[in-house]
């Protein structure tokens, strides 16, 4: 009798456990406070332009982030190693030579939990995976991938109607919004002949920066007076 009761008790216990387990998928693990989100999760960048990794993170409540670190992952092996640092917000000299001048955080206030980063003057070997970490605390395991392709974006040229002998202002804006090296914009004039003349006078190269000077668009204006006689096109 006693054995029977035990058996019944065990059975009901087992049943309850199996019943309880059913609706709880995934199993009740406490969610990690350390999360990172990339939007988008993959980035395609063009050579010579810039890439922006847009990213937010969360961390344990009792932790105060002091510095942000981005790593470029090698093909094989661990990512969060000193030799893979591309930006270190506390000790900038720790970044690899090839990245030092090219990488900036979009948001330097870590309490904003914004890990977005911009890489300027994209090169072929910037393709690969990147990982974010907080100094002496945590490296987020999720990685973000950058693919690099050839430059396809074209400059845009704004041309008003041109009239012989009347000055006009033309504007050429380079593609991309990078704060990297300014582009080389040249204006040339070809009349009816085959001669191509470079116009250096009356051109200005300017840039438009956002408040943080992280994004910059470069443009050149030309004040040009189309020559009279039959040389206009
Ligand atoms: C991160 O910060 C930058 C610069 O302040 C801002 O432009 C961007 O929208 C922020 N991203 C998110 C996801 O909040
Ligand atoms: C810009 O282009 C002009 C004309 O082709 C050239 O003389 C000059 O060296 C170029 N400058 C740079 C920085 O590439
Ligand atoms: C083109 O250039 C050549 C050599 O500089 C010059 O002799 C010729 O007159 C030019 N032609 C025109 C149409 O400007
Ligand atoms: C340069 O600009 C000045 C004044 O805007 C104008 O008089 C001159 O003709 C321009 N030069 C050229 C080569 O267009």
Automatic annotation (TrEMBL):
InterPro entries, alphabetized: Ig-like_dom (IPR007110), Ig-like_dom_sf (IPR036179), Ig-like_fold (IPR013783), Ig_CD22 (IPR056386), SIGLEC (IPR051036)
Leader sequence residues: 1-19
Domain Ig-like: 155-233
Gene Ontology CC terms: plasma membrane
Topology within the bilayer: Single-pass membrane protein
Pfam families: Ig_CD22
Cell compartments where the protein resides: Membrane
GO molecular function terms noted in the UniProt entry: sialic acid binding
Matching PROSITE patterns: IG_LIKE (PS50835)
GO biological process, any: cell adhesion
Keyword annotations of the record: Membrane, Signal, Transmembrane, Transmembrane helix
PANTHER family: BRANCHED CHAIN KETO ACID DEHYDROGENASE E1 SUBUNIT BETA,-LIKE-RELATED (PTHR12035:SF128), SIALIC ACID BINDING IMMUNOGLOBULIN-LIKE LECTIN (PTHR12035)
Protein name: Ig-like domain-containing protein
Species of the source: Coregonus suidteri
């Amino acid at each position: 009798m006693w054995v029977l009761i035990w058996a019944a008790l065990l059975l009901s216990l087992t049943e309850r456990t199996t019943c309880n387990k059913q609706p709880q998928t995934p199993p009740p693990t406490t969610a990690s406070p350390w999360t990172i989100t990339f939007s988008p999760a993959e980035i395609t960048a063009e050579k010579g332009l810039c890439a922006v990794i847009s990213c937010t993170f969360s961390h344990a409540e009792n932790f105060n982030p002091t510095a942000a670190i981005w790593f470029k992952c090698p093909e094989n092996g661990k990512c969060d190693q000193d030799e893979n640092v591309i930006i270190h917000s506390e000790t900038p000299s720790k970044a690899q030579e090839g990245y030092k001048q090219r990488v900036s955080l979009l948001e330097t206030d870590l309490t904003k939990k914004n890990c977005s980063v911009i890489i300027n003057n994209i090169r072929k070997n910037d393709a690969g995976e990147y990982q974010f970490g907080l100094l002496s605390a945590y490296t987020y395991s999720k990685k973000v991938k950058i693919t690099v392709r050839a430059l396809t974006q074209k400059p845009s040229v704004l041309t008003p109607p041109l009239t012989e002998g009347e000055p006009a202002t033309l504007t050429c804006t380079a593609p991309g919004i990078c704060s990297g090296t300014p582009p080389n914009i040249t204006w040339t004039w070809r009349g009816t002949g085959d001669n191509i003349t470079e116009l250096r006078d009356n051109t200005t190269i300017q840039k438009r920066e956002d408040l943080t000077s992280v994004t910059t668009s470069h443009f050149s204006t030309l004040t040009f007076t189309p020559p009279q006689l039959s040389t206009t096109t």
